[in-house]
Amino acid sequence: MSASANPWSGADVLVTGHTGFKGGWLSLWLSELGARVHGLALDPTADALFFDVADVGPRLASDRRGDVRDLGVVVDAVQSARPKVVFHLAAQPLVRESYQDPVGAFAVNVMGAVHLIEAVRRTPSVEAVVIVASDKVYENREWEHPYRETDRLGGRDPYSASKGACEIAVASLRASFFGPGDHPARVASVRAGNVIGGGDFSADRLVPDCMRAFARGEPVRLRFPNAVRPWQHVLEPLRGYIMLAEHLLGSDGARHARAWNFGPAPADEAPVGALAERLAALWGPGAKVEMDASGSHPHEAGLLRLDSTLARLGLGWEPRLDLADALALTISWHRAHAAGQDMASVTLGQISAYAGGRE
Ligand SMILES: NC(=O)c1ccc[n+]([C@@H]2O[C@H](COP(=O)([O-])OP(=O)(O)OC[C@H]3O[C@@H](n4cnc5c(N)ncnc54)[C@H](O)[C@@H]3O)[C@@H](O)[C@H]2O)c1
After folding, report:
1. What parts of the chain have a pLDDT lower than 70?
2. What is the rounded CA–CA span in Å between residue 350 and residue 333?
3. What span, in angstroms and rounded, lies between the C-alpha atoms of 275 and 306?
4. At 291, phi and psi to the nearest 5?
5. Is the CB of residue 42 below 6 angstroms from any atom belonging to ligand 1?
6. How big is the CA angle at 259 (ends 258 and 265), to the nearest 5 degrees?
7. What DSSP state is assigned to residue 268?
8. Which protein residue has the closest C-alpha to ligand 1 atom 32?
9. How far apart are CA 266 and CA 80, in angstroms?
10. How many angstroms separate the Cα of 315 from the Cα of each of 36, 146, 261, 333?
11. Which residues touch 289 (CB under 8 Å, ≥6 apart)?
12. The Cα angle at residue 243 between residues 237 and 248, in degrees rounded to 5
């Protein structure tokens, strides 16, 4: 990309959820592209180490800590940043936590997005908005077919339902307030798979659970070993989000203001148990995988596949890492971290090696 064609150079960009896993990686990547990145999120939680370990803070043009459940906070953050592009990642992202606090999941995941879009309506600088939803927005029929963007939304557990409800709200607000003659921003939503990568230390996620257990020399216990998930490295969907935003900024951007799937290649949709076994093999001696037979786990979908044909044809995006590459990058990040290396440069090195081949 030539410097003059780089839409990110000097552009103000707001990333909500920048203190989290995906938001942290995205903020670093956007700043590498030349953007002035503004953040809005809560303080990182005790297990959200990526923000500090990868030194995201110094790369930001501004760093606001606030709650997206508060409309005033969101309006103030968006109006102060005056962004050209907004990526909305702030969310309660865990299925199990949504069983413990369903009200919180709906409040953050639905009203956070509604507040964000309301704030955009009041901010003329915004040209493109990418709302990060989830692969779990679809009404899960436990069928073999991958879900397409036009499949019915649903969600049996509160997290999935909150993300599906977020999508319905976004579609309504887009149709109501961002059509011809309205606010010119193009508003899209994105649905990615289960991301893995260095720096995710969240509880109740497979890779961090494996890393913690293996490091302690304990077996990792799997709740749903046969559940099939679309695994992908975090940089894969983030490249899709960035490409989508570039298309939204383009002369035919309105055409792209819709929902998009960004899933892995079908061969990388693997059962939880198989992925854990591959991680254990990569880790080496001492890593063990066991089934958690307590039988008292709340429901989670068994089979989930994503069809990314639209992203391939409409954006020219397709996965470029297979599962083996994604696991190798993840393990190498965690090994470097355990060895006390400078994780800002390790992380930026992974971004630049991956982005070297960016379309
Ligand atoms: N990680 C995955 O596998 C995955 C898969 C599909 C979709 N997603 C979606 O991607 C997005 C980012 O997920 P992640 O894995 O980086 O999660 P994360 O938990 O690492 O980060 C969540 C971010 O949201 C912020 N946040 C949470 N509640 C907030 C509130 N009330 N006000 C302001 N900020 C708040 C946190 O401070 C943090 O910055 C989420 O929307 C999630 O649903 C993640």
Report:
1. 1-4, 293-296, 301-302, 357-359
2. 9
3. 18
4. -90, 140
5. yes
6. 135
7. G
8. 67
9. 42
10. 24, 19, 11, 29
11. 210, 219, 220, 222, 273, 276, 277, 280
12. 125
Structure tokens at 167: 């999508």
Q: Whose CA is nearest to atom 8 of ligand 1?
A: 134
Measure Cα distances from 195 to 37, 150, 175, 199, 205 in Å. Answer: 22, 22, 30, 11, 10
Q: What residue owns the CA closest to ligand 1's atom 37? A: 42
Each residue of 78-103: pLDDT tens digit? 999 999 999 999 999 999 999 999 99
Q: Do residues 21 and 53 make contact, with C-beta atoms less than 8 angstroms apart?
A: no
How many angstroms separate the alpha carbon of residue 132 from the centre of ligand 1?
9
C-beta of 67 in contact with ligand 1 (< 6 A): yes
Q: Where are the domains of the chain?
A: 8-195+231-265+302-322
pLDDT digits 0-9 by tens, 203-245: 778 998 998 898 888 999 998 888 888 899 999 999 999 999 9
Angstrom distance (rounded) from CA 115 to CA 173: 11
Question: Residues 51, 162, 305, 227: is their CA dihedral positive or negative?
Answer: positive
Query: In this structure, which topology does domain 8-195+231-265+302-322 adopt according to CATH?
Result: Rossmann fold (3.40.50)
Tokens representing 246 are 């570039």
Q: Which residues contact 98 (CB under 8 A, 6 or more apart)?
A: 92, 104, 105, 157, 158, 159, 162
Among protein residues, the one with the nearest Cα to ligand 1's atom 44 is 93
